[in-house]
Amino acid sequence: MSLADLYEVLHRRRDTRGEFTGAEIQDDVLRRILAAAHAAPSVGLSQPWDFVLVKNQDTRRAFRDHVQAERSVFAAGLEGERAELFSRIKVEGVMESSLGVVVTYDPDRGSPAVLGRHAIADAGLYSVCLAIQNLWLAATAEGLGVGWVSFYREDVLRRLLDIPARLRPVAWLCVGPVRSLPETPDLERHGWRNRLPLDDVLHHDRYRARPSR
Amino acid sequence: MSLADLYEVLHRRRDTRGEFTGAEIQDDVLRRILAAAHAAPSVGLSQPWDFVLVKNQDTRRAFRDHVQAERSVFAAGLEGERAELFSRIKVEGVMESSLGVVVTYDPDRGSPAVLGRHAIADAGLYSVCLAIQNLWLAATAEGLGVGWVSFYREDVLRRLLDIPARLRPVAWLCVGPVRSLPETPDLERHGWRNRLPLDDVLHHDRYRARPSR
């Protein structure tokens, strides 16, 4: 049944690092997941995203090295048990995945007057994220894994892919076939953080402060 | 078949303004779409979102009035044909929809060291948008419409719902049963802007500049 299937995909989706097989993504599958991303809602119908499909091994290796350096930057700020926990957590599958999909935000798309963006400049950036989640869910339904890597400096990624300064890289997504998707998120399995109950984030008519977790 | 159903929902989804019936959303349906949002991926498993469910009519009316004022601000910057086109476009269904769902971003969730956010401060904001798209797709599959209103000032919405200054409102979503979902996006139907072909936003290994549209 359609409804149950959708929820199954929504809840099965994982942020994938260690489960990529490296096998090729079929062209028709790749086309469908990119079309899914491109079908996302966007402020003023601006569709302000671009997708750079990165297969080149040298480019990916250079990015992976940068990510590892940024991993060390983050690690250096941790102490004791947190540092120990983090040392066991894999943060990227750049080389193991089949493809890098870099998603960017182009604020000039649909300019000058983007309907719905005059009061909230970031609304265009928000649209790009909606496209990313569409891609993620379609990939999950197709049996692929997706891992969002965010241990990088935007300028480094711009230089690596010739992305103009006015564009903003929003994500490097590692995409590809996986052995399996873990039932529990990696960070929860490693004891880094547990998921919150839904009721902790629900409010009625007005925001009510609660202890932040 | 599951895969076809998912793509059907991804492509059928619309940004809804004029089709709300105002009928009640069933409690179990609302719970499922909020649980779908809450199942989104998030940087460092921070789940930095909150959902304020706004039923109160006075609150919604005050917000609607503010949105109308911001609509006029945007309209004042348009000229000629664009102004004429815009005058026919409905930008919100705040009172006609069944429920307002205000989604906020809490940067303190999971602090101090949010895994994956040290290099990209906005990564938490991105996570909130992924939750919004999950909600949108689940609502679409449940036969509801969703309309993202972005004609507002964040401070006005904060004051209206007692949202603390450190939190950022990301969206007011109009949610509820609809008569139907239009096949063509409103803005395209009114001649404001047409959707781009997918190939216009695809790049291989490096970003290649193209005429911005």
Automatic annotation (TrEMBL), chains A, B:
Pfam families: Nitroreductase. The keyword Transcription does not apply. GO terms for molecular function: 5,6-dimethylbenzimidazole synthase activity. Its EC number is 1.13.11.79. It is an enzyme of class 1 (oxidoreductase). Residues 12-176 form the Nitroreductase domain. Keywords: Flavoprotein, FMN, Oxidoreductase. InterPro entries: BluB, Nitroreductase, Nitroreductase-like, Nitroreductase/BluB. It comes from the Bacteria. NCBIfam families: BluB. This is 5,6-dimethylbenzimidazole synthase. It comes from Lentzea tibetensis. The lineage of its organism: Bacteria, Bacillati, Actinomycetota, Actinomycetes, Pseudonocardiales.
